[in-house]
Amino acid sequence: MTRPASADEAPALVLVVDDNPASRYLIGTWLTRAGHTVIEAADGTEALALLAADRTDQADLPELAVVDVRLPDMSGFEVCERIKADPRTAGLPVIHISATAVATADRTQGLDRGADAYLTEPIAPSELVSTVAAVMRYARARSRAERLASHLATLNQATLDVYAAQDGLSFRMAAAAGAAALVQGTAVVIAHSADSESVYADTASPDGPTTSDTVTLGLLDRLTRGLPDKVGMGTCEVSAETRSAPALERLRAGKLALFTARTQRTRPAFCIAVGADSLRAAEDARLLTQFAQACALALEALRSFSEEHELVLTLQRAFLPDLPDLPGVDMAVRYLPAATGSEIGGDFYEAVDTPDGLILAVGDVAGHSLQAAIVMGELRHALRVYAIEGHGLKALLEHLDNVMCRERPGWTATLCLLRLEPGTGRLEVANAGHLPPLLLDPGGGSRFVTEHGPLLGTGVPIRWGSHYVDIAAETRILMVTDGLIEVRGVDLADSLQQLRAAAVAGPASPGALCDHLLEVFGRDHDDDVVILGARVGDFGSQGVSPFETAAPGQPAVDAATLTSGGPVQPGRHFQHGMPSNSTP
Amino acid sequence: MTGFSCQASVDDSQTVVAVSGDVDLAVVDVFWETLDTHLDTGRVVVLDCSRVEFLDSMGLRILVKASQKANEVGATFRLGECSPAVQRVLDLAGFAEAFSTDSQ
User: Fold this and answer.
1) Which of A48, A52, A373, B37 is the most buried (most CB within 10 A)?
2) What is the radius of gyration, based on Cα positions, of chain B?
3) What is the mean pLDDT of chain B?
4) Do A581 and B82 touch (CB under 8 A)?
5) Positions of the region Disordered (chain A) (predicted)?
6) Contact in structure between A404 and A440 (CB atoms under 8 Å)
7) Closest Cα to residue A540, out of A387, A424, A414?
8) Burial level of A154, CB count in 10 A (0-12/13-18/19+)?
9) CA B84 from centre of chain
């Protein structure tokens, strides 16, 4: 009875190892008649040398070995063991043959040491041919399963990589590299950017660099025109003109196999192009189809993420005001959203010109979310309204604390308020738990104003007044949020000293100073950053000597107080009554 | 990044919640749940921060929430020993005024 031939029983390249030329010839003839191709070796050494990497490429290795048990240089068992021990040839099935006079123990030894079958002479030609077919069937099924498993692992990794991509370029690089790994050849990925405004073609090959080209929407249209619904998988001839696009020139000549997918009909298609001849089996096409679908979904996620992020940034910017243009005060502000995409922070700034003087504010609502941005917007708006109403700084903080506790229980914010008092040259400071403002004296001196009370949102009655500092004309004022300087494992007081040093060494104009600080502390923060700089002209016009007359009462406390953790200066309004944990 | 952990020990007079590692956005939910549960018992809850290596604004917000919750439910929430990193943040935030500490 004969089974129908299947791919698993297709002719194979068979290695015959036998020291007896007559036996080799006989076995070779039987196998050749059955359609196989035969190569011969006369002993173990020759057989192993033939299989070695320097003689035979992986793709040209025999698919099966017929090995005589008795060889002049080593036993057939040893040849089999060495074949199975080498990762290159471990999957090569071995059929032992031996002379009549073998004990059962020899046969079991052969099988125990790795052989896939054991035949004893006299061997009927049909028995050998059927045994070869049976062993091949099993070996090919196993190798197919292993290859599929390995391809699925590759698909899985490639899918993870495209989903891990944070932006359009890294997405396309990951998609092209994934497709190249799946086909073990060059692959081109043609996709819209995350903002859907441009089309790019990225090319990757397993061992070459990945390149990115800008292409036209027309190319994607032309490529997908022939496909049903412009979605799915298809092989097509493309015109010479299309073919001459730089991205596609990197694929070998011949037919292109295209795999396109999109998440909805209204969405642009995502396309993978490979040379049709690099698809080795039907499963390659299935894998690439799946991968194209995964890529389309990942790109869609990236796109909606990008849109959402843009929306939140737009909202956030809408919450943040333009600085008023006032004579005598030169102001600049830098606002940087967090570098890592989804993190939207609650940093804000404000500048309100009131009859009692210009009020400057920098604050930070705790948390990173759209919600934090909304709370920030409310807080800033409330601040503006209360300030226009003419409330003093202390009253502003009290009102805002009240608003936070009533309207947004559980939320906290830090806020530093400054007021330039007209006609006196005095700066009023009321700081609710925010980083201290830095004053840069025109003479080169610098000082933090560290007096402050609790942050907003605690509902704790404010038992402190605001603090007054005299400043000279041309004093520069700097307020920042902690996103600029906060680094895990670095004492915040040290970071403040770095800020002071960088500011002192920086340029004079507020705008250039802000930019300088961004350069020094980097732009790649995972938190929002606000830097507000102001240079005040001669708004006091009373010849103030800033460091000698500190009104009413309190001297400006230098940041050294913060650094040393030493005794609290008398002027400091808050007391941290925790003797059990005073800093050493 | 240091591993966060939060352990409570209960004795006759109070519950001491000892927290260590980095107290930031990544752990605030767990941190809050622990404090919330213990505040619900109405006992005196003391937070030992002596082994906290990093406290950010979100961590600080949990301390404020705990203090507010204690006021609401009539429990007592106190801050125990604080590491220098925590002390620095508390000082900057003017937080000592916000609730009672072991010293008061």
Assistant:
1) A373
2) 12
3) 84
4) yes
5) 564-584
6) no
7) A424
8) middle
9) 15
Q: Phi, psi (5° rounding) for residue A89?
A: -115, 10
Closest-CA distance, B5 to chain A, in angstroms, reads: 17
Residues A39, A44, A46: CA angle, nearest 5 degrees: 55
Residues written for chain A: 584
- Segment A250-271 shows an average pLDDT of 78
Helix (H/G/I), strand (E/B), else coil: A470: strand
Q: Is B91 on the interface with A (CB under 8 A)?
A: yes
- Mean pLDDT, residues A262-276: 81
**CA-based nearest distance A6→chain B, Å:** 57
Which stretches within B1-104 are classed as H helix? Answer: 28-40, 57-73, 84-92
What count of residues does chain B have? Answer: 104
Chain A touched by B99 (CB under 8 Å) = yes
Q: Which amino acid is at A388?
A: I
- Peptide bond preceding A122: is omega within 30 degrees of 0, i.e. cis? yes
| A431 reaches B (C-beta below 8 A) | yes
| C-alpha–C-alpha distance, residues A293 and A321, integer Å | 44
Q: Degrees (nearest 5) of the Cα angle B4, B6, B59?
A: 65
For A46, A269, A569, B82, the CA distances from A582, given in Å and listed in that order, are: 81, 63, 15, 8
> Average pLDDT over chain A, rounded to whole?
82
CB atoms within 10 A of CB A23: 16
Distances (CA, A) of A36 to A10, A12, A30, A198, B104: 8, 5, 9, 54, 94
Separation CA B17–CA B76 (nearest Å): 13
Helix%, strand%, coil% for chain B, nearest 5: 40, 35, 25
Q: Does B98 touch chain A (CB under 8 A)?
A: yes
If you average pLDDT over residues A25-40, what whole number do you get?
Answer: 94
Q: Are A31 and A80 within 8 A, CB to CB?
A: no
**Which residue, among A473, A476, A474, A495, has the nearest Cα to A486 in the 3D structure?**
A495
Pairing state between β A438-440 and A357-368: unpaired
Question: How large is the average pLDDT for residues A4-30?
Answer: 86
**What ipTM describes this predicted complex?**
0.71
Strands A270-275 and A187-192, how do they pair?
antiparallel
What distance in Å separates the CA atoms of residue A11 and residue A31, rounded to the nearest whole number? 9
pTM of the model as a whole: 0.55
What part of B 40-69 touches A (C-beta under 8 Å)?
A: 49-50, 53-54, 56-58, 60-61, 64-65, 67-68
Q: CA–CA separation, A523 vs A539, rounded Å?
A: 33
Which residue in this structure is represented by tokens 């802000």? A514
Q: Residue A413: what pLDDT?
A: 93
User: Which tokens belong to A123?
Assistant: 């061997």
Listed in sequence order, the residues at least 6 apart from A349 whose beta carbon sits closer than 8 Å to its beta carbon are A320, A321, A333, A335, A360, A361, A362, A363, A479, A530, A532
CB hemisphere CA count around A167 (13 angstroms): 4
Instruction: Please tell me the distance from the alpha carbon of residue A508 to that of residue A79, in angstroms, as a whole number.
Output: 82
- Token digits for A393? 């700084």
Nearest to A366 among B57, B85, B88 (CB): B57
Terminal-to-terminal C-alpha distance of chain A? 93
Across A21-25, A370-374, A506-510, A523-527, least confident range? A523-527
Q: What is the mean pLDDT of residues A286-314?
A: 84
